[in-house]
Input
Amino acid sequence: MLKGKATLIKELTSTTMYLYNSSASFLYRVEPPLEGNDHVVVSCVHIRYLREAHIFGSDEEGIVYTFCELPGSYSGDTDPIKALNRAGYEVEVVES
Output
């Protein structure tokens, strides 16, 4: 059962994500907070045969606090929505 909502803030650029080796990274606001984090980055990695989606706690700009994976992170695919669903969040799409 989903316990909260996640709202996409923005896709992070390679400049913002200079420490990552990822296909795509996204900044979300989550309510209620995930292990004390009200913002998270979902980093979707696809390198050769490796496919993973990692959730990390971050600030409102997408700067990651620590590279400890949060609940919902998984291997086998690169779907940020699936990672957030696994963490208990429904992803809200905001029309711009």
